[in-house]
Specification:
780 residues, alpha+beta, 3 domains, Transglutaminase-like, transmembrane
């Protein structure tokens, strides 16, 4: 069975060569496809990768065996894409899940161009949602066809390794921004590609040896020689893998992985921008107006007793309004993406919750819900339109629909309701990074100082702040005639007025904002939540939500429990009469004459107190600073050059040591033999074409010149003479070797001299076997 790789166009590769490259590319494709697993996480994706690789391999093998031109391979690939694309990438559109339908083909063609952006604007994983498997189908098919075709047909088979590498990089680019280290998959791909590369080189060497043996009609390698060569390759691979594992381990420990990855979905402009819509907290008082407070807004089934229905989560405050996301930073809560068939909420510790919501008088883009959403199903005649325009932010558990909800819309949601947090006294702040608060209302700091003690732990301070708000604050919406006046809004001036009034008077809009700002002052990441708290919720029965159920509360992030909901609002109770403003009393200060000091020190005895503040270092002279910066840059540059040149310096040092050991051998015969070997190595490094089985005279003839022929004759007589050669003979041989080495350098260009200096070809000349015996053995 012929296993030789093709050397010219039209040459058919052997089946052994085909099988080896196919298995190697299959393993590499499997490793590279691991970067796409966080995107899909479904059995359909596994089936797609396996089937697509089989189809792509069949195209490449057929093209290589039948000597198809490139255009025919491309045409067959397109045909396979159209025939297999629907069953594999859009299985829901296939007839009996096998044959493509007309609608499926149209969707496949559209997805070829549009699915890439859809994939990076949707919550992961996507499974087999709509046509989002099409990018994976395209990547695996092209990687397989191009990679295997290059391996089987190209003179530079190493180009085939670029195909799985490109697939690996594309998977990372399309992947999640969240913590998802590809080190394991990358290391596995590196190992597979390394062994593939070794196998390709072994095949090339085997083919070259076989061709030379056929031409010279002699055996060049024994079984032991081949085994030794394979063993050397495996040892080299093991060393490289060990180094790669060590470097990967150090990188995994040293490089932080908590930062979001800068991938495509982090750069793409999302279709839904929450900052294009007014803050839902701005219309808080509108729900409490008499015509809205009793109006049915939603009908909800499944909400537990005391349950809260979230409308939106707000985490950005500019002194005027609390809003969703921020326009000054890349806020995690401001990025809304499309929702596939489900979201994995396995990391949330809570109870499953299923809600059925029907929209009555509620209007707006925000979709009310509870807990961490796993999946949502819209019902009724508008289900498809609502599902296609639904966007979700998992960080803030806020959902939205482009165009807004309308009367008659209905949906069923399944989510995980987090368990209530433990005692706040032991809580410590979380690590979420929110947009900075640009304006702190007056009175916040003074009120906080009155609520908490400086030495208390953060959790105790948070608890004290909440108790202070609930104790000193009173609720009034200011919309009814029997309620004390209470201005709406939550800008900095309104929060300042809240803490300046006696008694403190406002409603959930003001207290939630004040509590969130004070929690931020205490070091806790915090945000405001707007939603409904139905008074009659409980037992899983249907409850009607009205405008009077509107409320606002806060969420703070703790190190142990993550985001937890807290109601900072005072209980509804009778508001005491407003206290009159206290007049400011101005009195003349009394002058107190201190008694004279009994032992006043003389002015000369006074010494200035020792300063506890270290003097700043004297500024460095500009010239010295420039020299220091230049030396630092030069040092780092030299270090980088040393690292880059280290392999070449090691080769030069190894050759110098090899020459020194040969010249310093104990016996004159060994020195003479070593001199000849040094001459042969020099010829090899200067790429003199010498057959592996050449004798000394044949090697000298290949080099050319009378001196090389004289050297070969002298070495043959010295080594085959019955008398032991003298050290003077060895010195003469080494002198001739030095002159011939100088002649090589003198007749070569600078580039050729450098290439010979760092060449490693001569290290493979004496690996044993026939080649070694011929060069070191008999003369001509």
């Amino acid at each position: 069975m012929n296993a030789e790789r093709p050397r010219a166009a039209g040459t058919r590769p052997g089946w052994g060569f085909i099988a080896g490259n196919t298995l190697a590319l299959m393993a590499a494709t499997a490793m590279a496809s691991l970067t796409l697993w966080p995107v899909y996480q479904s059995i359909e994706f596994i089936v797609l990768v396996a089937a697509t690789f089989a189809l792509g391999a069949a195209i490449a093998i057929a093209g290589a065996r039948l000597c198809w031109p490139a255009w025919l391979v491309a045409l067959v690939t397109v045909a396979v894409y159209l025939l297999a694309g629907v069953p594999l990438a859009i299985p829901g559109r296939a007839i009996e899940r096998i044959l493509p339908s007309v609608d499926g083909l149209l969707e496949l063609l559209a997805a070829t161009a549009l699915s890439w952006k859809q994939l990076v604007t949707i919550v992961l994983p996507v499974g087999a949602y709509q046509a989002l498997l099409v990018p994976a189908f395209i990547l695996v098919l092209l990687s397989t066809v191009i990679g295997l075709s290059a391996a089987l047909r190209s003179r530079i088979a190493e180009l085939a390794l670029l195909a799985p590498i490109a697939l690996f990089i594309a998977g990372i680019g399309l992947g999640p921004t969240a913590e998802s280290s590809p080190i394991e998959g990358g290391l596995g791909l590196f190992v597979v590609l390394l062994f593939w590369l070794l196998w390709v080189h072994w095949q090339r060497r085997r083919t070259a040896v076989r061709l030379i043996a056929q031409q010279s009609r002699r055996t060049l390698e024994s079984t032991g020689d081949r085994a030794l060569a394979a063993a050397r390759g495996l040892v080299s691979a093991a060393v490289i893998i060990a180094l790669a594992i060590a470097v990967g381990t150090v990188a995994a420990i040293a490089v932080p992985v908590s930062e979001p990855r800068d991938v495509l979905r982090a750069r793409v402009q999302q279709p839904f921008d929450p900052r294009d819509y007014p803050s839902p907290l701005s219309g808080f008082r509108g729900y409490l107006q008499p015509e809205q407070s009793e109006r049915a807004l939603l009908t909800v089934a499944g909400l537990p007793a005391g349950g809260r229905l979230r409308v939106a989560t707000l985490d950005s405050y500019d002194g005027i309004v609390y809003s969703v996301g921020s326009d000054t930073v890349r806020s995690a809560s401001g990025s809304f993406t499309r929702l596939p068939y489900r979201i994995d909420q396995g990391q949330v510790d809570g109870e499953p919750l299923t809600l059925r919501v029907t929209v009555d008088g509620y209007r707006g883009v925000w979709v009310p819900g509870a807990g961490a959403l796993e999946r949502i199903e819209f019902l009724g005649s508008s289900a498809t339109a609502r599902a296609d325009s639904f966007y979700y932010n998992d960080n803030s558990t806020t959902a939205a629909v482009l165009g807004g909800l309308q009367e008659g819309d209905s949906y069923r949601s399944r989510s995980v309701l987090p368990r209530p947090a433990a005692e706040l006294a032991g809580a410590r702040p979380g690590t979420e990074v929110l947009s900075p608060i640009s304006v702190i209302p007056d009175g916040i700091t003074q009120a906080l100082d009155g609520y908490v003690r400086a030495g208390d732990p953060p959790g105790v301070q948070l608890q004290s702040m909440l108790e202070g708000l609930r104790t000193t604050g009173y609720i009034s919406h200011g919309v009814n005639a029997d309620e004390p006046a209470s201005r709406s809004g939550h800008g900095a001036d309104r929060i300042t007025q809240l803490f300046g009034d006696q008694p403190m008077l406002g409603d959930q809009e003001q207290y939630a904002v004040a509590a969130a700002l004070m929690a931020r002052k205490l070091g806790f990441p915090s945000r405001v939540v707007v939603g409904f708290v139905p008074a009659s919720a409980g037992g899983g029965e249907s409850v009607t939500v009205t405008g009077a159920d509107i409320s606002a509360w806060i969420e703070v992030q703790t190190a142990a429990d993550g985001w937890i909901s807290i109601d900072p609002n005072p209980a509804v109770r009778e508001v005491p009469p407003k206290q009159p403003d206290e007049p400011t009393v101005v009195s003349r200060p009394q002058t107190v004459v201190p008694p004279p000091a009994p032992d006043a020190a003389a002015p000369g005895d006074l010494s200035p107190p020792e300063s506890t503040v270290e003097d700043p270092p004297a500024p460095m002279h500009p010239l010295l600073a420039f020299l220091l910066a230049a030396l630092t840059a030069l040092g780092w540059t030299l270090l980088g050059l040393l690292i880059l040149l280290a392999p070449f310096l090691a080769i030069i040092a190894a050759k110098h040591r090899r020459r020194r050991l040969r010249r310093a051998a104990d016996s004159p015969a060994d020195r003479i033999s070593g001199g000849w070997r040094d001459f042969a190595d020099t010829a090899t490094d200067f790429r003199v074409p010498v057959p592996p089985s050449a004798t000394r005279t044949e090697l000298a003839e290949a080099v050319g010149g009378q001196r090389s022929l004289v050297l070969a004759s002298v070495v043959d007589r010295a080594l085959f003479s019955p008398d032991e050669p003298a050290h003077t003979d060895a010195d003469a041989v080494w002198g001739s070797v030095g002159e011939l080495r100088a002649a090589f350098r003198g007749t070569s260009s600078r580039r050729e001299r450098v290439k010979a200096l760092i060449s490693v070809r001569s290290f493979g000349r004496y690996s044993g076997g026939a080649s070694k015996r011929t060069v070191e053995g008999a003369g001509s």
